[in-house]
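Hey all, sorry for the wall of text incoming. These are the three entities for the joint prediction.
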Amino acid sequence: MLARLELTEDEYAESVLKLSKIVDFVDQLSQADTTDVVPMAHPLDAAQRLRPDVVTEVVERDRFQENAASVADGLYLVPKVIE
Amino acid sequence: MRAGWEVVIGLEIHAQLATKSKIFSGASTAYGAAPNTQACLVDLGYPGVLPVLNVEVVHMATMFGLAVDATVAHRSVFARKNYFYPDLPKGYQISQFELPIVEHGELFITGDDGKEKRIGITRAHLEEDAGKSVHEGFDQSSGIDLNRTGTPLLEIVSEPDLRSAKEAVAYMRKIHTLVRYLGISDGNMQEGSFRCDANVSIRPDGQQALGTRAELKNLNSFRFIERAINFEIERQIDLVEDGGEVVQETRLYDSDKDETRSMRSKEEANDYRYFPDPDLLPVEISADYIEAVRQQLPELPAAKRRRFVDEYGLKAEDADMMTASRALADYFEAAVAATDAKSQLVANWVMGDLSGALNRDGLDIGDCKVAPVELAGLLTRIHDNTISGKIAKQVFEAMWDDEGTADEIIDAKGLKQITDNSAIEAVVDEVIAANPGQVAEYMAGKDKLIGFFVGQVMQATKGQANPGQVNQILKQKLKP
Amino acid sequence: MSDSKQALYSRSMTELEAGLDAGEFSSVELTRALLERIGELDATLNTFVTVTADEALAAAERADKARAAGTGGVLNGLPIIHKDIFCTRGVKTSCGSRMLDNFISPYDAAVVEKMADAGAVVLGKSNMDEFAMGSSNETSYYGAVSNPWDLECSPGGSSGGSAAAVAARFAPAATGTDTGGSIRQPAALTGTVGIKPTYGRVSRYGMIAFASSLDQAGVITRTAEDAARMLGVMAGFDERDSTSIDHPVPDYTAGLGESIKGLRVGVVRQHFDEGLDASCADRIREAIAELESLGAKAVEVDLPNLDLSVPTYYVVAPAECSSNLSRFDGVRFGHRAENAKDLLDLYCRSRGEGFGDEVKRRIMTGTYVLSAGYYDAYYLKAQQVRHLIADDFKKAFANVDIIAGPTAPSPAFKLGEKIDDPITMYLNDIYTIGANLAGLPAMSVPCGFVDDLPVGLHLVGAHFAEQTLLRCAHRYQQATDWHTACPERFQ
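and here's what came out:
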């Protein structure tokens, strides 16, 4: 549900089975001794580059919206959301 | 506060940072554009696009951190906050989680007891804003405008140190003033560039453990925050005193009905599954950089306030008002520098007539129609007795209407104060002669009538006689 | 005339360039010949999702003009194929998925821009495992790709279409992407050269993301020399990609023929165990012996955490991809379910219909390993183990210049053989994954046959040591001719 995926009943059953195999498989990781090991977020030890605060984009809204299935008045449409 | 109860409040403030381009893309952040005309491919979360960090947001966050005496992290990390909502195109928001850019700051307010009170600031972190939904105008649909997506936000989280709605508002006002002083946010609550959520919980007096809290949203004015929090306090106390339990939930403030309502949860029990964003690298800030930013910080409100009291001899409350915004403070100082009149006079005029005119015309100090130097010119004429304070008000209105400088108007309208004793004496003589009855009463002991005579003289001189001299001369001539 | 044209499709880029320069044929003629060949033969392989004939011919015309004017880049008039994971403006970019079956990209990926600027002629977009998830090119919405060496076999994946197309001589080069071996493994299974550069060497801008910290663009060719040429065009800093590294791009084609005397080649003790097909092991040993005869020195090295690389990968990659794929919801682009009754329905059905099984499985795995309560045990743990693996390589590179071994545990397997058991499929990547986890450059070079199916030699280098890899591969290809072998059907 958190992943917003819809599965048929058969797909679901099969998935749960395969998923649990995968989870068992990755449980091997617990064997490794990782005391005092820093988690790696990147293969390189680089730092984030900073970009100058300048407007560089020309937004071609209509061209971009050609890919959208449902648009009106420049807005993307979704089923009504109640807040 | 109702007997036996204590309220605990923490505020989460989202300030939109006033950069020209977005935090992770080069699209414009200007307010009010037609829907989706400022949402570039990066903002739209197209396949294959990537975020690149805006240098100015790091600068602004660092300024804020220094201004609240916080630790500016040498290394901070962006994390993805994963959830689905149409105004969040990537299906995750890039934010900061374990390693925010600013931590452990503080701010001082005047507490409910009138004493100075320290409010802790747990952290301030950078994140991107989401888009907006439009619900009206469509039959079965909602329309999504992603212009706002990617606008930089600084989320400022306070410790739960606030103990009343008043304190919460005071804290919020301080933060509001501060971000505008620093020039990092325009603090415009109507346009949504300064937003506040409040976490409110109650506990019996003396209890250490915190009660369950409710999160209040949609608080977009100082007045609403105070009312919403007060409503919520009553609601929670009533609930518990009736045997119920406070539920952890999000509540929306309804300003029409002046109540808070449980929000139909848009996020259910959300597990955001935070993890460091692999498209971005850790942000590294050196001690040298931080020091350089510190050197360039503008004078902060608290320091300015103290200086105004010391240097200009203003009363504390007046100094408070004069430093409410950097623009106002700058105006005041420019005016003081250009006149010999006393600082207090300048302050009175800025707080009085000037502010009155600004409010009346719905203007900001930045759009003031009378420049500081011009106001100084007017006040100098009061100081050197060319005109009285009362006439000055008239001149001011004319200046506001673009009729010229103080001197030009005084000349044109012949408003110079009459200070020539013999001229005043002549008028006084006329008034005495014209009002024998009142003269008799005054002589008989009705001292208060001096006001009547002064009024008559002022009338006869169209208000231009120097009141002090009129008074003096009248008293002399009416000596029994 | 027709004879020389028949040989055209077998020529390398270096040879084609010589022919173009000599006026032997034009770029337009070359392009036409290849498009014809594709038209005749691709039905049996299914390597293309989209053939861009018109665009290719137009580009070829421009290239011929540029050549005549003496202008024109390093790839002027040379035909290539792009894996359908790279965004190409105005052209369908499907990523092998129903989710993007209707997607016409509004922009070009950095890799596409660079190739175009260099004058390349793009023949089309190649088939691939859906969203780059797979090692057999069987998860594509557009159907499986066949291996030109044996049509009943898989060409490997996820860049199966690119590899098969190059092996079938549809083009001398094709771009690919490699997250756990997706360039190198299909190169090994199809007898081609595949190189994945150092992480950050090539811009990921416009490359549809699977696992951001592992993905890297690369290329599949038949010769190391062509790979060097292509890499030189693709590589370079891009300010639109925060993970792109600003490191000078050398001329990869220079010094290729230099001797590898004294080159220290690491041979991994952990590689030669029961997991590796015995005959494959023989080919690898022979290849290493060949390197030694060229002057290299074999040294045994240890990669003690090798076994953990697959589980580490299968935590990190699904986690990152589960988040990367959240943007596919049918609202702004891509497949959208019809008549959605509410928002939840829109999301669930658009994604349920748009994604195939393997993709859904990885999204669920990723969602699971990141969820509250499991983050520390899985994701965090995997990132720590990743460091251990990277450190293993660092230690090894203190004593060797490159590490050699098998690319895949066996030659090409039959289509349908492994798809039912995810774990068996995942274990295909055991030799290649380490390089992705550590961000190291790696390549696969054809080194023989087992049962008439190609076997690949895997070479790994230290960060930014692509030149060492290419030189070693080139010298090897000068001394052997495995890379010139052509599948029977496609001769």
